[in-house]
UniProtKB/TrEMBL annotation:
TM regions (residue ranges): 84-105, 117-139, 163-186
Originating organism: Ceuthmochares aereus
Compartments it resides in: Cell junction, Tight junction; Cell membrane
Name by which UniProt lists this protein: Claudin
Keywords: Cell junction, Cell membrane, Membrane, Signal, Tight junction, Transmembrane, Transmembrane helix
Family designation: Belongs to the claudin family.
Keyword Metal-binding listed: no
Matching InterPro entries: Claudin, Claudin_CS, PMP22/EMP/MP20/Claudin
Length: 219
């Protein structure tokens, strides 16, 4: 029962990780730049994401521009697009597979099949977490290196936005959920290998006893 509760907890973490992954992929605030200027009325917040760049004015106006050209983008943005989409796909597959393999569900057949399904789902979560962790780390590195570069003017420097932190947290949730699913199945199989079912067969003794009874019948 404890193992089923642990799997359910890992499934909830994975759900948060999947939703966070999707939100981080779509949010436009991967890096943020606040330019206040000489007057607070002219304050502008510029946000850049994987798919669009947005500008928010202090007057309440909000405008976004989609990034149509893929080849004109920097390499780290192209890589972040690809890996984040792969992370969302793998995590969604993991949700479907673990739904079948969890002990608290009545899907997936026998216990052995459900164990293999849980392990496959855990691997999908781990891969999804890795694919989500790589672009957020790379993107943060590029932001920090540009921020520390003295040749770049202050008005062109950016800071990590909320989407980056959401991506980090979602990747952590997916990695934890994947490790829990994989280790729970591994412990079960490992225990079965160490403690095999005890079955004692004594064919020679049975034959001797039967032979003895047969001889006594003839005496």
């Amino acid at each position: 029962m404890a193992s089923a509760s642990l799997q359910f907890f890992a499934f909830i973490l994975a759900l948060f990780g999947v939703f966070g992954d999707i939100i981080a992929t779509l949010l436009p605030n991967w890096k943020v730049n606040a330019d206040v200027g000489s007057n607070i009325i002219t304050a502008i917040t510029q946000m850049q994401g994987l798919w669009m760049d947005c500008t928010w004015y202090s007057t309440g106006m909000f405008s976004c521009t989609l990034k149509y050209s893929v080849l004109s983008l920097p390499v780290y943005i192209q890589a972040a697009r690809t890996t984040m989409v792969l992370s969302c796909i793998l995590s969604a597959f993991g949700i479907c597979i673990t739904t079948v393999g969890m002990k608290c569900t009545k899907l997936g057949g026998d216990a052995n099949s459900k164990s293999h399904a849980c392990f496959a789902g855990g691997v999908c979560f781990i891969l999804g977490g890795i694919f989500g962790l790589v672009p957020t780390s790379w993107y943060t590195r590029e932001i920090i290196s540009s921020f520390l570069d003295q040749t770049i003017p202050e008005s062109s420097k950016h800071e990590p936005g909320g989407a980056v932190y959401t991506g980090f947290i979602s990747a952590g949730f997916l990695l934890i959920a994947g490790v829990i699913f994989c280790t729970s199945c591994f412990k079960k199989q490992h225990g079965a290998w160490i403690y095999p079912s005890k079955q004692h067969h004594f064919p020679s003794t049975d034959q001797e006893s039967n032979t003895g009874y047969n001889l006594k019948d003839y005496v």
